[in-house]
Specification:
Number of strands: 8
CATH topology: TIM Barrel
Helix content: 40-55%
Bound molecules: pyridoxine-5'-phosphate
Number of helices: 11
CATH architecture: Alpha-Beta Barrel
Structural class: alpha/beta
Largest sheet: 8 strands, parallel, barrel
CATH class: Alpha Beta
Shape: globular
Distance between the termini: 23 Å
């Protein structure tokens, strides 16, 4: 079954807009995470950025204590954040680029350009019993490098697909790239997640991508929650994910 990790960063974005630097504030991302779990989310994702623009340190500590599903700690490969992750012990970390020089041509992590540094962080995480995922473009070169540095998972960057979703030929080209990157990842022993820019509209076609285990979705769920509430927004996305057949498109797909 395809699993859903809800990214709760933007609940914290809203809180920080009013309560930055204060000891408490609303909306509370931990309460949001618990609601997501109650209606069927399989995991919670939060990104502790170096500039702390949304999730802050106390959120990660509280999430680790409160949630009952898996905690996916999104982070840059930066020494301060690595130490925090090792102390918090999430189930999995997803290494993402935050600085321009860490970004590959299209926006995923430039694994090829940082193999030694990634290898070292991945080793430390694995020694602590934390799984590691690398957020990469659907590019075979980056996928193969992810296996070389010892990651167990990649998260395929679906941003380019989401961006061209309304232009049919470009969208199909992006889908093909996702399909072949996922196949390559599977061949080299990596497990495959995906995320960025996914929503109810573009999810059904993504069912053609094989080997997917989990989707990480944030912005569209939190946006939709403004109108229909968080529980319903999570339910809607879970519905759009239903019937994933490991690469076989659902019957309703055009
Ligand atoms: N996966 C990763 C690695 C991300 O950085 C993000 C964005 O924070 C997401 C998934 C979720 O993207 P979106 O908010 O567009 O659903």
């Amino acid at each position: 079954m395809l699993k859903l990790g809800v990214n709760i960063d933007h609940v914290a974005t809203l809180r920080q807009a009013r309560y930055r630097g204060m000891e408490r504030g609303e909306p509370d991302p931990i309460a949001a995470a618990l609601l997501c779990e109650q209606v069927g989310a399989h995991g919670i994702t939060a990104h502790l950025r170096e500039d702390r623009r949304h999730i802050i340190d106390r959120d990660m500590v509280a999430l680790r204590k409160a949630i009952r599903t898996r905690l996916n700690f999104e982070m840059a490969n930066a020494p301060e954040i690595v130490d925090i992750a090792l102390a918090i012990r999430p189930d999995i970390v997803c290494l993402v680029p935050e600085k321009r020089e860490e970004i590959s041509t299209e926006g995923g992590l430039d694994v090829v350009g940082h193999e030694a540094a990634l290898w070292e962080t991945i080793r430390r995480m694995k020694d602590a019993g934390i799984e590691v995922s690398l957020f990469v473009d659907p590019d075979p070169i980056q996928v193969e490098a992810s296996a070389r540095v010892g990651a167990q998972f990649i998260e395929l960057h679906t941003g380019a697909y989401a961006e061209v979703f309304h232009q049919k030929s470009e969208r199909n080209r992006e889908l093909e790239r996702l399909v072949s990157a996922s196949e390559r990842a599977h061949q080299v022993g990596l497990r495959v997640n995906a995320g960025h820019g996914l929503n109810r509209e573009n999810l059904p076609l993504l069912h053609v991508v094989p080997h997917l285990e989990e989707l990480n979705i944030g912005h569209s769920i939190i946006s939709r929650a403004v109108f229909i509430g968080l529980e319903n927004a999570v339910r809607e996305i879970l519905q759009a994910m239903e019937g994933y057949g490991g690469g076989t498109p659902p019957r309703s797909t055009p």
